[in-house]
Write a structure and sequence with these properties.
The structure is a single chain. The chain has helices spanning 25-38, 40-47, 60-78, 80-87, 105-114, 118-137, 145-152, 155-160, 172-180, and strands at 165-169, 187-193, 200-210. It is mainly α. The chain has a 3-stranded mixed β-sheet. Helix 2 packs across helix 5, helix 3 crosses helix 4 and helix 3 packs across helix 7 (145-152). 25% of the residues are buried. Residues 1-6 and 16-24 have low confidence and may be disordered.
């Protein structure tokens, strides 16, 4: 039986033929290109310096550091070779309880970038994760991070934003059916989902049809 070939697909963060925009975006392009060329571990080690002390900082230097860490997360999620390289980094040896979890690559790159210095590091990882993991789940491009952080008023204000929500609606007859159902019932449903906007995903139940019991 042939062994399954591991993915070595590169998650492209900056297109090779992309026109580099003017300052202040140019440093971010350079940082993300360096991430792709040097590899995840080297980039995270370089980013580590000072990142744990910048939580309340809203300047562009923090945005670039976080975009590199975020971009590293996108890479290790898509690329098994980079993931194994991350897991093999010597920093994990003294912290087996914090070893990387394949199902949560963003937390792993945050930990590598922030470090393992007790409660302070734990708190910083938690705060960055809470602020940025919704964007990571949506696969927002790393290049967009500085703008999104700036528009939110900084990473700490981004962290404090309410959790994203789902609003469900539909025609009156459908919503009447939903609200008056007296017992657990299986339905076939036709739904319409709108892209997330301002932290809200809107779902419209267009039509419901009870499933016949088998």
């Amino acid at each position: 039986m042939k062994a399954k070939k591991k993915s070595t697909k590169k998650a492209r963060l900056v297109d090779a033929d992309q026109v580099v925009p003017p300052h202040p975006s140019a440093p971010l392009n350079d940082a993300l290109k360096a991430l792709e060329e040097e590899g995840v571990v080297a980039a995270l080690r370089s980013t580590k310096e000072g990142i744990a002390d910048l939580l309340l900082n809203t300047d562009h230097s923090l945005s670039i550091k976080l975009a590199v860490v975020y971009g590293a997360g996108l890479i290790v999620e898509a690329n098994d070779e980079e993931w194994f390289s991350l897991c093999a980094a010597e920093e994990w040896a003294d912290h087996p309880k914090l070893k990387p979890d394949r199902s949560d690559p963003f937390r792993a790159v945050l930990r590598m970038a922030v470090g393992f210095d007790g409660r302070k590091a734990d708190s910083t990882v938690h705060r960055y994760y809470k602020a940025l993991s919704p964007l990571f789940r949506e696969k927002v491009p790393a290049l967009d991070l500085p703008r999104l952080i700036r528009e939110a008023g900084g990473i700490e204000k981004m962290r404090q934003r309410p959790a994203r929500t789902v609003e469900v609606g539909g025609p009156a007859a459908v919503m009447e059916t939903v609200s008056t159902t007296k017992e657990t019932t299986d339905f076939k449903a036709w739904i319409r989902v709108e892209p997330i906007a301002d932290g809200v995903t809107k779902i419209e139940i267009v039509k419901l049809k009870p499933r016949k019991a088998k």
